[in-house]
Amino acid sequence: MEEPRDSARTKEVSPVIATVDPATGRTVKTFEELGAAEIEDKIARSYERAKSYRHTTFAERARWLNAAADLLDAEVDEVAAMMTTEMGKTLASARAEVAKSANGIRFYAEHAESFLADEPADAAKVGAELAYAAYQPLGVVLAVMPWNYPLWQAVRFAAPALMAGNTGLLKHASNVPQSALYLEDVLRRAGFPDGCFTTLLISSKQVEPVLRDPRVAAATLTGSEPAGRAVAAVCGDEVKHTVLELGGSDPFLVLPSADIGRAAEVAVTARVQNNGQSCIAAKRFIVHTDVYDAFAERFVARMRELTVGDPFDAGTQVGPLATEQGRAEVEELVADAVAAGATVLCGGKPLSGPGWFYPPTVITDITPAMRIHQEELFGPVASLYRAGSLDEAIELANATAFGLGASAWTSDAGERARLIAELEAGQVFINGMTASYPELPFGGVKRSGTGRELAAHGIREFCNVKTVWVGA
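That's the NADP-dependent succinic semialdehyde dehydrogenase sequence above. Prediction below.
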């Protein structure tokens, strides 16, 4: 089974679980994989805890979750530095991720009870004295999580799953073990009983036996399409529920009525956020021909000005890619495009020296024959397209196997309505950058996955929707 990594899509080349600083290539700390007996013990404790934990009250769960959020706030400097060391995000980005995680935790602590309240039906119409739908926990849920948002990705599973009354097992990416262990520790210190949330330090090859264990009721994965297929295949064979958030090749459409200056400025952030390693980062910039030159000039100039360097430096805007293989994949896709006739407007070559740095890059003259046209590129590389009309822009945007998010820029009400209706994506943002919020459901269509995270939809994914009918 492939190592998941929110669309970074590298295969696990070694079973070693380790923190390797991507800014230097230096191995900071290694960890031993769990043996069979240790895995069995952790699954057994999670399963036994689920039997009693499901009977705790929403108030108890919320109290523990709020305590965890308070700990994150108090420990933000330590946690941010850990994440920056493990996967190379800038320190400012890491601090923001800690704050976002605490916010997401508090959101579910506050709203879970109302999200999971019994839903009354028309009892008389079904010949009952009382009829309603009840939301009840599934039991043990396995989460297979990526490295690009080491805390937030895991929290947006853990908070709703725990508030719903489930227990959780976390198989995190093998290059962020300290982040994985920290989340288990902070939830324990917040008051959650032993076995409620457990980190499994295992390699990808050990995931399938855990999935097939009858004590594991469901699974959620954020990662590559191959990893999602593998998990879905096993869970399908075992008839277990899955939530999959997979790749994205998100379009960013700019139409003539848009504020071109604002669109170009946001486009830069949308592409290089998290060093370009985000499933919902804008990757394909589709610009109407009437404003193409004006947008391209601003966009390329701003991308060229970005500061690449030490992620701990306050002046750095783009840090290293998280893995050496991840950078190699970016190089391969850019080289393939150039060899087939694409034009590089800025960047395009890996930076020399230690660490896995790649400069902000813009490529144009892209054709369907190029790999970059169809494959997700997980790094600070933007593909720039010219569209002759709104129809062509929408057609280009939808010409991908993925359908995670889309951003479109227009001040025309008619164009807005068409974009919302016709863009094939799990979320469409008009005049703004695609993002995830606890208040909004998150997920994709086509090969970007199934199911939803966040909002009420996300917590209900981890529940049995039980129909209750009571006769006179």
